[in-house]
Amino acid sequence: MSGNADIYHEMIVDYSRNPINYGEIENHDVTFHDSNPLCGDSIDIDMKIDQDKVTDIKFHGKGCAICMACSSVLTEITKGKTIDEARAIEKNDVLGELGLEHLQAVRIKCALLSLKVLKSALYTYIGKNLSETQDVDKLKEEADNLY
Amino acid sequence: MQSTKSLFENIRNDFPILKRIVRDNKQLVYLDNASTTQKPNQVIDAITDYYRNHNANIHRAVYALAEEATEAYEASRDKIANFINVKNRQEIIFVRGTTEAINLVAYAWGRPHINEGDIIVTTEYEHHSNIVPWQLLTQEKRAKLEYIGMDDNGELILDDLDKYLATGKVKLVTFSLMSNVLGTITNAEKIIEKCKAAGVPTLVDGAQAVPHMKVDLEKLGCDFFAFSGHKMLGPTGIGVLWVRKSVLETMSPFHGGGDMIREVHKYETTWNDLPYKFEAGTPNIADVVGLGAAIDYLTKIGMDNVREHEIELTKYAIEKLSAVKGLHIYGTQDISKRGGVISFNFADVHPHDVAQIVDGEGIAVRSGHHCAQVLMERLNVAATSRASFYIYNTKQDIDILVNSLNIVAKVFKL
Description:
Chain A is an alpha+beta fold and 147 residues long.
């Protein structure tokens, strides 16, 4: 296979056809939706959070193969992590799993939309349960510097 | 006299960019012409020549260069008037593009004319530039925005228009002459006839039509008409708004500043004559000159030849693409009702993935919602892939596209 087809290896095609953790959680503790205004990709993430731990996570929405594969991988990585561990997930944790570290700039937003949604969901959850010691500005900065 | 065939064979030599090698040593195949077109040497040279030899500000200074620049700028206005058959050059206003043209109308005509309870009618297959300005205006004025629906064939349901007109509250009907997604050519004569009978003004978005077919405003009979230079071989950042003079005279200024005034006093100002009242500040002179050169180029080919060439390509593309298993083409199959724009989806493969894989073969097609999310909702898809043609495209370009779809099929195991 030549040219750009290389990035579409088996795993990505399989994940896009049969995404992992796809669906909704009825009694979620937090949910967040975001879309990519340039391409119309759209992702929702629902999470169950129990004693600071992400006990269940599901995503649904519409997106390209890259977006769907990365969302699958991200939800797999996140499940079972504490909120702080989940907040520390970086883009290369997701891209690395799929060999997409060198994805071109125009597609990186497809790959990282779900990470953005996850972080936003986490901030939403933290915000709702905010204690005085937590630094809202730092959270905002983290969210802004996601890409 | 050159035959049409050889005319189009030689055209490619005028476009240096078409010789580009992209990606993995692939010859560029440019099929995103509904988005923007490439520029021939004649346009590039006209802009360069303007900056090298004639650059000066227009309409004021008396020296030689200023006179040359003014002449070149105003000559383009005359070329445009001829090209779209407008008798009065005062009705032609230079703007940045179709988007600015429509916003100008929404602001300078809409604000003084639209009141609470009024209705503005647009269509389901509009570009965002013919939806959002009207949302802003109707929200501000507590007016209503309504949509002419689209049938499954990609054509407008004109009964919807009758229904809205019957309310007596419609103050403007606005629609594109050709859909940028489906290529549907709107039955503009019929819509305008109905609106005229109801005494309702019409705005026509000609961004997709003017580059591809003969447009005659005298015959069309609308009140506002907008198009962009960069979709018709011209530079980016320049477009045209035409407004019927009787309507133009009822409009407030858009931008205040130099060139649009007659006299400025401390607390009051009188306006310059038309069209200068609507061209505040130093305009985009070089690109107006460039647009003039693009019009010369298209005029030389002849718009009927352009349309004929694209009909042939579109027919060929529909035939070849329809033969690809799992590929769905949106819109009408009736070639007389569509321009050289083909939106499609390929099985369950997302358009971005299609675009990425064919890009590896050097092919530029667009994927996404094409700034027409209302239409995407109507079609019940998130996005489509879109191939759109122009004068320099060939049947070979379409063959290369179809072949590259085989790679998509292989990757996604279709």
